[in-house]
Amino acid sequence: MRFVIDNQINPRKLKISIILLDWKVRESFHTIEYLNRQDISRDTYEIIWIEFYNYLAKPLLDIIDGYKVQQQPLPIDRFIVLEYPDSFYYHKHVMYNIGLLHARGDIVVIMDSDAIIKTDFIGCILKEFEKNQDTVLCIEEIRNFNRDFYPFSYPSLEEVLGDGITMPYEVKVFNKTEINLGESVISLKDNPNLIHVYNYGACLCVRRDHLIAIGGADEHIDYLGHVCGPYDMIFRLINAGFQDRLHPTCFLYHVYHPHQGGTDNYLGPNNGRGISTTALANFEQGRVLPLKENEEIKKLRTKGFFPKG
Length: 309
Description:
This protein is α/β, with parallel strands linked by helices.
């Protein structure tokens, strides 16, 4: 493992650590740009980029060089390359744990690394945690399958919410710029079937110490490749006594690119609808700790981090 970038931060101002992943698969790195255009002070959040393989994507390096040329602060605060050989299949949960171990904010955001977000995205998350520090906040991703958006060219929100859009049936308001899940949305804790309605792999926001308390992401081999994602941690957080909720008005947006949705990727045990049966079993059995816990996270957990319930 090596650091390509390791910026110093002001710990008194930093509140959020955003974890983004790559496994030599990203073609566009626009999420980095959107995250650096937020309407909240940049020193309140850090961006952590984790590459699984021994690889540096030239388009990402070009973005970084562009910030250097303009004498702007670097767009990534911690750029970590895990240096796994190509003979290894990627494991997102391993990357989650590396991000968790190196996160310096109290709140961790694990999100889709090729999403579009509005300028108030980070502010919306902070407001939710100001109301409830113990919340398990999930943010839905609205996807557009119109192939005209590939290759990515920074479409307007009006375009993204146009032809090719798909949305959950609970959407109450829709008008080319704004959507709203409405007041009827309930939690995954109250209705586990929502795992098939919303994209619980898109964005998870939770306190770092709560994730450590449940042992972080599960590094079991069943989660190799595309399946699973953050929702195994959501299930175990619920089992530990925490309450999850979907944000009703804040969203991620995603446009078409080849092999989206894990096409041609290895899929671990799942129910045929893309949901890990191992994660579902953990939820049903009330499991809090991982089947395979990261040893470094275990050291932190056993030094004083304990599940709530």
